[in-house]
Amino acid sequence: MKTLKVNLGERSYPIYIGSDILDQKNLIKPVVSSKQVMIVTNETVAPLYLEKVLELFSDYQCESVILPDGEQYKNLKVLDTIFDALLSKHFDRHCTLVALGGGVVGDMTGFAAACYQRGVNFIQIPTTLLAQVDSSVGGKTGVNHPRGKNMIGAFHQPQAVIIDTDTLNTLDDRQLSAGLAEIIKYGLIRDRKFIDWLEDNMDKLLSRDPDYLAQAIEISCACKAEVVAADEKESGVRALLNLGHTFGHAIETGTGYGNWLHGEGVGTGMLMAADLSMRQGWLTEADLKRVEDLVDRANLPTRSPATMDYQKFMDLMAVDKKVRDGKINLVLYKSLGDAFVTNEFDHELLKETIEAHRAINSD
Ligand code: NAD
Ligand code: GLY
């Protein structure tokens, strides 16, 4: 087992990464200070892992709440079922919430923990590749609004992140690819060597070689932990973690939550950001080809939906957390492995990028 740390002073916490660590009570005991534990999961993950995690808390007052599965349920209405479960079981402000599932469960549980009685503890047990390399670390929590993705939320750090890589054995290939998008992101924003490593080892990751997957998870979590420690509330460098997200969130909202996976939107979005950076003269055509090949080899879409024209993108990208004084900010590339945030790009070139990447037929 590997242990990393997110360094945030008195709110620092460990990230444990290993195979078959879900039932290790010694990881949990030091971070759960009260007897009341509420496990939040969903209807897909519960039959797979809930029993094992309940066992972990056998000497606690442990309850569970099972949410419907899907991005379309990441909203305030469903969030209320968590509050209802907590209140009906008389959970006090010293309780701990446990997020058992992918990024949707993690973001919702974290947000419930941020709000319940003005803030209680929570632990992340991420079970998708995407959640293991990104969403479980860093304390961004929240829900979607019909008009915009993740627009209601709070920063609230967990007490620990427990990544059991064996949980990936039950994940389907499409979800694995969605997780690869966020892994590729870390290379593209700030680590050229990791880009080379991914190009060399993409086939091993796709075939779920456990050693290579564990290595990719560790490198990703280390990068995320470093960025979050440097800029917890996203006033600077953390914004780079949104590479591809402004395009991707627009696609997710524009096609209806749940139709495009978050990682798929990010994959296409990272490619569109590379295309715009090439049109601006910051990337070469060879750089763009490397990004396209990586996204494609990870089995992620390289075309945006046919239904998303320039105007639709612009309307949706106007509802983004990086918008400031009415201006859209994008994460673009100064060079491969070196991203930056800017609103100084040519909107005609952005239009060309959007049209160049739009699929011809709707599928
Ligand atoms: P998800 O949570 O919807 O999970 C994907 C699917 O896999 C779901 O159907 C889920 O039930 C299923 N699943 C989960 N674990 C499984 C397992 N071990 N075996 C079989 N099936 C399993 O999607 P996701 O990709 O994990 O997360 C996407 C969400 O994360 C989005 O809402 C996105 O906005 C959010 N996100 C948040 C952050 C952050 O920093 N907070 C970062 C990235 C993404
Ligand atoms: N996934 C973006 C962030 O955590 O900042």
Helix/strand-derived category reads alpha/beta
Q: Determine the mean pLDDT.
A: 96
CATH fold label of the largest domain: Rossmann fold
- What is the helix/strand order? EEHEHEHEHEHEEEHHHHHHHEEH
Please count the helical segments.
13
> What percent of the residues sit in helical stretches (DSSP H or I)?
40-55%
Form type: globular
The total number of structural domains is 2
Known CATH architecture of the largest domain: 3-Layer(aba) Sandwich
Strand content: 15-25%
Q: Round the Cα radius of gyration to an integer and report it.
A: 20 Å
Major sheet summary line: 7 strands, mixed
- What's the N-to-C terminus distance? 43 Å
What does this structure look like?
Helix content is 45%, strand content 18%. Helix 9 crosses helix 12. Helix 2 links the parallel strand 3 and strand 4. The protein is an alpha/beta fold and 363 residues long. The protein has two domains: 169 residues, Rossmann fold, CATH 3.40.50; 169 residues, Up-down Bundle (Dehydroquinate synthase-like, alpha domain). The chain contains 13 helices and eleven strands. Bound molecules: nicotinamide-adenine-dinucleotide (NAD) and glycine (GLY).
